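TICKET: design request
STATUS: open
ATTACHED STRUCTURE:
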């Protein structure tokens, strides 16, 4: 597991952390759900796996160390599916704010919050504004970069999707194929109308957000090759956003 990598705080001693920070290391704080449904084919901690995988890649390339992943967050769209956990929006925002302030007191070169979510974007933006750490603080949204958007448009064939779909399942086939069960992948129903803001539902077949499996999109179209290209694009986006973490 990436959590035991040399650049992860939980695998280090406190004086190792002090030495790295004194040497100019930046801090990465991954945000990825540890208990959020991801269809029938992906594990509940899919977001956590992705957050830690990308954090490990960046930390190895840049002078950065990785704080423990925030695995509880604001994920209200998924709580109709058994096991999915969500904090309230204010509680999550407060959590991020407190953790960022706590990391900032040790004076990293910069703090990068690496976020795998969508509903978490606005609370993290507010948390960073409220934390006002005495070092640069940046919000890295892994699915928002221009390289990723271009790769997604070129590779993905599903008519709609945003969760446990063709793209996300492809990424997991590239980074953790042993955890993906493609025999259970199931597309969400074809949309009769546009999806509406609000939670997915496994029960209400009249809802535009109806999905018996929890996937929203078509994961049956996923391939490891697509995942390799999508992950490469995300890494390019992260590199472009991380100049403050470059070794001096």
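STATUS: resolved
RESOLUTION: sequence designed for all positions
ATTACHED SEQUENCE:
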């Amino acid at each position: 597991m990436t959590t035991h990598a040399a650049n992860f705080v939980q695998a280090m001693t406190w004086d190792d952390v002090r030495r790295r920070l004194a040497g100019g290391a930046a801090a990465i704080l991954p945000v990825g759900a540890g208990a959020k449904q991801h269809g029938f084919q992906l594990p509940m901690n899919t977001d956590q796996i992705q957050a830690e995988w990308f954090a490990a890649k960046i930390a190895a390339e840049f002078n950065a160390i990785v704080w423990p992943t925030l695995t509880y967050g604001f994920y209200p769209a998924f709580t109709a599916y058994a096991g999915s956990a969500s904090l309230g929006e204010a509680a999550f925002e407060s959590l991020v704010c407190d953790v960022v302030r706590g990391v900032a007191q040790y004076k990293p070169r910069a703090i990068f919050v690496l976020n795998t979510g969508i509903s978490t974007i606005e609370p993290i933006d507010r948390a960073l504004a409220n934390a006002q750490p005495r070092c640069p603080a940046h919000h890295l949204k892994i699915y928002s970069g221009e390289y990723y958007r271009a790769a997604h448009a070129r590779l993905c064939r599903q008519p709609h999707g945003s969760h446990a779909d063709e793209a996300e399942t492809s990424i997991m086939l590239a980074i953790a194929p042993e955890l993906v069960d493609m025999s259970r992948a199931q597309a969400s129903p074809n949309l009769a109308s546009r999806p509406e803001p609000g939670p997915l539902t496994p029960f209400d077949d009249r809802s535009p957000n109806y999905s018996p499996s929890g996937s929203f999109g078509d994961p049956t179209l996923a391939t490891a090759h697509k995942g390799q290209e999508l992950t490469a694009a995300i890494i390019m986006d992260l590199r472009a956003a991380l100049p403050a973490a470059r070794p001096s």
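CLOSING REMARK: The chain has a mean pLDDT of 93. The chain has seven helices and four strands.
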